Amino acid sequence: MTEKLLECIEIETSEMSDYAVIWLHGLGASAHDFEPIVPELNLLQRPGVRFVFPHAPVRPITVNGGMAMRGWYDIPGIDVAAREQDAEGIHKSSRAIEQLIEREIERGIPAERIILAGFSQGGAVVLYTGLVGKHRLGGIMALSTYVPLQDEITKSIDRKHPPTLPVFMGHGKYDEVVRLQYGEASRDLLESYGIEVEWHSYPIAHGVSAQEVHDMEAWFKRIFGM
Question: Which of 55, 91, 200, 206 is catalytic?
């Protein structure tokens, strides 16, 4: 590992961890954002799960007038899924997440037992990383987000042997930050690759609902064999 690891918060549901979930927050938030959700997922029985919540670097965000805040990449304009995207920032954040994956492997958790989860910007980074990264992961949970750099991802996907990882996508029907149509289009794109997507939409804006947490719990328990 040549670059410094991202600062992270870790929560373990048991003395020994058999799975890891690397969970990325959204723009302007921090690693603490989804920390309170862990008890709500009711994953206290075996197998043990290590939740890893990394802090995004602080960077200027163009759409917010250049204000510095935690973000996984820059957003040039109000349309977050526009064709003009910060490819360099996405690539850099993806490499940082790959480092966290490598650390979990070094700590004894194989790649197929590592889940990437993310909200909004964080969800875009985990989708990119899970689809083009070198590891065959255990799954992706993408919340209120979209597939970034779609041309690049499409070129890298082997349609004869698509990734077999399960994908959970949840999106608010009234989301005005990442509009529902972007989530639906991303779902359709993933399915065109041959990836099976568990899709849910909720009567909320840009956030996470109680029903969504319940659906996430059920998905995690299927993945973990609980």
Answer: 206
